[in-house]
Design goal:
There is one protein chain. It contains five helices and no strands. The chain is an all-alpha fold. It is globular.
């Protein structure tokens, strides 16, 4: 069975696993973005998404809830995309 978000199955599985954080809010935001928008990302944005997934859960939650602004412009753009996906 093909993963809906790309052709590299090992990388897809790793990314999907990293999106499962054990915190409902994060699981929903990241999972929805992975399912709906990940395939639209270019290689640079996928790398940025993977970098974002390395953030500690507490920081990631603050960023995605809009309570903290990322200093990195690429991270900020991706955080907005994740939040926009959840809003629709």
């Amino acid at each position: 069975m093909n993963a809906p978000y790309g052709t590299d199955h090992a990388a897809n599985n790793r990314t999907a696993w990293q999106c499962r954080r054990g915190m409902r809010e994060l699981d929903e935001l990241l999972g929805q973005f992975l399912e709906l928008r990940y395939t639209d990302l270019d290689a640079c944005d996928r790398s940025t998404f993977n970098t974002l997934l390395e953030y500690p859960d507490a920081v990631l939650l603050e960023l995605l809830m809009g309570r903290m602004a990322p200093a990195d412009g690429n991270i900020a753009r991706l955080v907005r995309a994740i939040r926009d996906t959840a809003a629709h």
